Amino acid sequence: MSRESRIRRVAIHDWGDHPCPPAHLRDLLGHLDAEFEVRWADSLDDCDGVITVYHHDEFLEAVEWVHTIRSGYDDFPLDAYRDAGITVTNSTGVAGDLVGESAVGFMLTFAKGLHRYRDNQGENTWERIPWERPFELGRTSACVVGLGELGGSVVARAGVLGVDVVGVDVRPVSELGLDRVYDVNRLAEAVSDVRFVVLTTPLTDATRGLVGRDVFEAMDEDAYLINVSRGEIVDQGALVGALEDGEIAGAALDVFESEPLDPGSPLWGMDEVIVTPHAAAQSNNYGAKVADLVETNISRLDEGQRPWNEIV
Hints:
Blueprint: E1 9-13, H1 22-28, E2 35-39, E3 49-52, H2 59-62, E4 65-68, H3 78-84, E5 87-89, H4 96-112, H5 114-122, E6 141-145, H6 149-160, E7 164-169, E8 181-183, H7 187-190, E9 196-199, H8 213-218, E10 224-227, H9 236-244, E11 250-253, E12 273-275, H10 286-302
Parallel strand pairs: 1-2, 1-3, 3-4, 4-5, 6-7, 6-9, 7-8, 9-10, 10-11, 11-12
């Protein structure tokens, strides 16, 4: 995109209501000089930019700037955007706190057995779980795999609750204050003696299928997997096998290899599995966070500056 270009009309692709309705985002941006309209991907000819959730091929022929309201962009053909001279930005930094809260919420749920009580409520059952089942979160440990924006948020929140946290990343990360950060090649070692394994790493060629049978075999039998990143990081078949064989205690899964999760998946019926519909980042202020970022980037693009979170 030319640094001299100005953003005058921006389409908000009609993605439904995940994670916030397009019309809501349009209203939040209504005070700006630029015009914002909710549109389909095939009606962008008079637009300078588009705000979207996913890539659509029509973007490559129509606009100068594409902003995804997600952090992930693995479905965007970046070389094609680069060849077309289109600027692409994402929303890294928007969801970190929200996903971090969800991850810690899963940890607390497992520690206190809250999911079992919720299940009992549906059956009008007044029954405590066995006395030896609940445990104190502040006396547990966790391994956070991926220490970027999401991982750092989990580390900070779990640490406040007294969880002993170690990390796994492709680079040493000192600013998070962790005593131990393992290289990804030592993942099995890193997860071998913790109660929670929390996945917050982005999906790349290197992380696809990263967590498989060898990792589940290395985890303790009383350990839980929490995935708030991308489903394809986990070998889902190996996960089902590990749960069925009692190799791990349970899992909280917000993301899956294929979404929505197949109604026939055995994960639905497992007592120690929590299934959520890719909702870890949902919050009533998600749209406001995105709107602030979009407003900043329009200003920077209009002034010939590099936008925040520029991917291409």
